[in-house]
Every structure is written in C-alpha cells, then in structure tokens.
Design goal:
single chain, six-stranded antiparallel beta sheet, elongated
C-alpha cells in the first residue's frame, strides 16, 4: 500500500525555490491521499495539524538552504519521516533556479515530475520505463501553394493527417506527433508565446492542446486526435519562433500515445483532402 504523508512545504514565496516547493506539495495532495500543512496557519493554530502529524508520517519540502520548513518542524518538535530539498533536486536535474517568482511551464513540469517521483518511492514502485522515441521521418516531401508573395508548404508523406483547424498530426503505430500548419504560422506572423499542455494529461479529439500567441492573436491548438501527452517541445518555451521557421520539423508541438485513432481518423484529412481546404483558406485570407 502506498504511504501517504502530512506535507509541510517551505513558505518562502519570495524565491522561486519556495514557489516550486509549494507546487510540489499541491501536486502531491492533488494526486494522492497526502494532506497539506499550511506553514503560516500552523504557527498560529497548531491543534489541527498536530493531530494530522500523529496520524501520518511527515514529509518536509525545503526550498533553499534556509530550510524554513525543517526549522518549523523542529520548533514544533515533529519527527520528520522524509525530507526533500528543492534546490538540491534542481541541481541534480540540471535545472537552474530562476530569479522570477511566477513559474514557467518547464518549472511546473519539473515540480510535477518530482511529486511523481516522491509518490513512486512512497509506494515502492519501480521507476517508469522510458517511452520508446517516436520515429519521425528523416526527410519530408512538400507540396506548395503560392499566393502573392507567400508560399504555403504541406507535407504529403504517408502518415500525415490534418484537421480543418489547421493542425497536423503524424501517426506511426499508436504514437503521434502534432503541430500547426504553415498556414497558421503565416496567418499569425511572429509567434512570441507558447503554452504547452500538461504532460500526462489526456486530450480528446478537438479539445485544446495548448496554444500559441503572436501580436495578432492567440491560436488554440485543437488536437486532431485523442491520446495521452507524452512529450512537449520544450525548445518552444524559449524559442517559439521555431514554429514560424519550421512548423513541421523543429517547431512541432507535442507527442502523445493514441487512444482512439481508428475512430479519430474518420474526421481527418490526408494530403489530398486537406490541400483544397488550405487553398480555399489562403484565397479567402488574402482577398
């Protein structure tokens, strides 16, 4: 049976390490039977939490070397069962803690992975085996449609499918990689933000799978397929302009394990079906 904890996190929200400690604690309490101890409330009204720490082993999550959470546990005379240091975990994982306080998608994902690791250790489960990498074509073959000075590329390789929301998906077996088409990046112009979906989340066909934003508009990435998100293109977090430069290759959005492709493909186009859709949209957009 998995062990559940009373979780006492750092309250140093003036530092990114404190924000990460809070995110790890929240994730643990959202995904398991762990219960959160508010460090601020504990200092002024301890009866509720004293009972909790008698019932459950105590997990302390320190943010930085100041060790606020550990010091609070010592003040209250609590026995610590497990202890995690965010700054040490970040160093081991090659994550440089930032100066800003609001967490980026990559930092939130680090926090969620750390919470998952703690959960596995508590249950005695073995580490999850790495996913076999999706084999994306080494070379794409494009057909183009030209309107005025703009050239719109579409891959016609086998395995590519498109929805009418201008999102492509490459399918091989039960795995898929998806991104936005050349029409999208031309329409948005310079893309400046990328908001990815949450790793491990299940996305249904036609649900939002993140979004991208330019000075013109926010574009919701409507998933062509149903599946579980297994990877996001982290390069886009720092360089969303890769979508403009290479929407089918370096600018891909995410990968997933498919859950209902035999049904999903009935509502998708292959190249021959999508090409006239693209032409119509280009002609209307450039009137």
């Amino acid at each position: 049976m998995a062990k559940s904890f009373a979780v006492l996190p750092c309250n140093g929200l003036d530092k990114s390490a404190g924000s990460l400690a809070r995110e790890v604690a929240l994730r643990l309490c959202e995904t398991g039977e762990n219960e959160l101890i508010c460090p601020v409330f504990y200092r002024v009204a301890e009866a509720k939490y004293n009972k909790l720490t008698e019932e459950k082993p105590l997990l302390v999550i320190d943010g930085c070397a100041v060790r606020c959470a550990s010091k609070l546990a010592a003040e209250k005379g609590l026995k610590i069962s497990e202890k995690i240091s965010i700054s040490e975990e970040a160093k081991v994982n090659g994550l440089e803690l930032p100066d800003h306080l609001r967490l980026t998608a990559a930092e939130i994902e680090f926090a969620h992975q750390l919470a998952e690791k703690i959960g596995r250790q508590a249950s005695g489960a073995q580490p999850v085996a790495a996913e076999e990498a999706l084999q994306f074509p080494a070379e794409l073959h494009f057909q183009t449609y030209t309107k005025d000075k703009f050239i719109f590329k579409i891959p016609d390789n086998e395995g590519f499918y498109f929805n009418e929301n201008d999102v492509w998906v490459y399918v091989i077996g039960d795995k898929a990689r998806l991104g936005v088409t050349d029409f999208v990046q031309h329409s948005l112009a310079d893309i400046i933000y990328f908001t990815p979906p949450v790793l491990g989340s299940h996305v249904e066909q036609f649900e939002e799978a993140g979004n991208i934003e330019s000075g013109k508009a926010v574009f919701e990435i409507v998933s062509p397929v149903s599946g579980v998100v297994t990877a996001v293109n982290e390069a886009l977090l720092d360089a969303p302009e890769l979508i403009n430069q290479s929407p089918y290759e370096k600018g891909w959005i995410l990968e997933m394990n498919l859950t209902a492709f035999s049904e999903d493909q009935d509502l998708l186009h292959q190249f021959a079906g999508y090409f006239p859709v693209l032409k119509r949209k280009v002609d209307e957009f450039h009137v």
